[in-house]
Amino acid sequence: MGPVLAMKIIAHGIDLVDFERIEQMLDKHPERFPQRVFTSAELADADKVKNRIEKLAGRFAAKEAVMKLIGTGWRDGIAWTDIEVVNNPLGQPIVTISGKVKELANEKGIEQITLSITHTANFALASAVALQG
Question: What is the pTM of this model?
Answer without folding.
Answer: 0.93
